[in-house]
Amino acid sequence: MANYWHEDIECMPLEDMRRLQTEKLKKQVQHVWDNVPYYRAKMEEKGVTPDDIQSVDDLHKLPFLSKADLRDAYPYGLLAVPLTDCVRIQSTSGTTGKRVVAFYTQHDVDLWEDCTARAIVAAGGTADDVVQVAYGYGLFTGGAGLHGGSHKVGCLTLPMSSGNTERQIQFMCDLGSTILCCTPSYAAYIGETLHEMGLTPDDIKLKAGIFGAEPWTEEMRRSIEASLGIKAFDIYGLTETSGPGVAFECGEQTGMHINEDHFIPEIIDPDTGEVLPEGSVGELVFTAIDKEAFPLLRYRTRDLCKLTRGKCSCGRTLIKMCKPMGRSDDMLIIRGVNVFPSQIETVLIEQGYSPNYLIEVDRKNNSDTLDISVEMTAEQFSDKMKDVQDKERALASAIKTMLGISPKVHLVSPKSITRSEGKAVRVIDRRKLHD
Amino acid sequence: MDTIKQFSIFVENQQGKMAEVTRLIADAGIDLRSLSLADTRDFGILRVIVNKPEETEALLSANGWTYKVTSVIAVKVPDIPGGVATMLEMLDRANVNVEYMYAFVNRVPGTAVTVVRVDNDFAAIGALTAGGIELLSVEEAYGA
Prior knowledge:
The structure holds two protein chains of two kinds. By secondary structure, chain A is of the alpha/beta class.
């Protein structure tokens, strides 16, 4: 028997869903127009007014929001209600230099928790379950999101937060946790530790896991399922749209149902911004049609993804998204390490260099190489060879401290790095040529 | 004080870059009086002394080259065995450090003119003249 948290919504016929979305979207656009001057200016620039949005089919007329907008508008520029109406703040870690702060009214917290409640129920959760939340608690949305959903469903909730793995397993054994919520990598680690402690899945009562907040593969899913003796469910979300629960997996495990009564998804061509037909791979864009405090319209997630609609064996009619296939922005994985050009840029600026640089990644003898060319100013140039080389070494060392991997730094003449009129080309990845 | 203006030009290690900058100088009717190139895998520093320093500076600047103007001394080292060693010993005794040195292109009979970049021009000139070693005058260096 399939279980739903909101059967009327989760199994709603498409025409009804579109009607519901249209109604909410129109209201939301008016709300943003009236209360978020930052976005209103973007609409005006595009020549769009709330009157132009008469149905979900008009969504494409609205301007996009990107991470850069969030940075520009930090912290209150996209807030759509008075602060006094807000009850919560959550934030991203900011490790990539792109901190996002999101605001929630009580209504927003409720709808978010309803989303995670749907995920818990889809994973087989009921009021009889014991949910162990081993996502980090705090500003990070993982802990708070699943914690709230677990309460809604009426599960006995263990707010463990992440870490202290042996205690996690101790609680699992003593209190009979049935559902584990954490990142997939932490789930794998818990599984590993369980076996190291001489225990087997038979010693615990876990039946399901809800794992998200980072990319994971199908292979990893099978391995976690085997080591913990559970069924593993994927969950998707981002702080910008509320947190985990924007989409969740059902028992079919063939993609995540998007809570499209709250978040309208689109797939666009990341280069042109053009909306692509269903089934195409492109950048995932979300419009939050129900949120009050931080209602992002057409927010570009940078996740490359595919949407498919069709009746699912679970009975849900909610559109499905596949596991994100990668980022459309420029995160690089070099020697297994995630590298954002913005991190390199941060170091360059700290060390007094211009932000004109070129990152070149290649593969030589099966090993990734990272070369960074940086323009120096006339003042930074020295007629002594050693001074220039010392500068290169100092910069390479500062970048290594930031990234954890060693680059080769080349100082080059001012204005020698090609400028672009649009988005600057900062990265050349030649590894693709070899694949 | 007889120090000479030297241009140190940053030259990326790309084909044609050296030709490009020397052609620029030549087309302005400027004569290279001495030249040295220090290079690594990625870049080189072309060091030149020219007959028209002011014009050269304006030219490099206007064409976007990265350069530094530094003062060097040009020493008339006696053209005998041990000439260079003797000169360096004088500098050493005066606690002057040599950053780099190279030979001057134009010959002065009986001497091997050597361009020397030191960390203390004043002390170097004092030590060398006291030791009886002549320096190339600015006029001689620029060929005026």
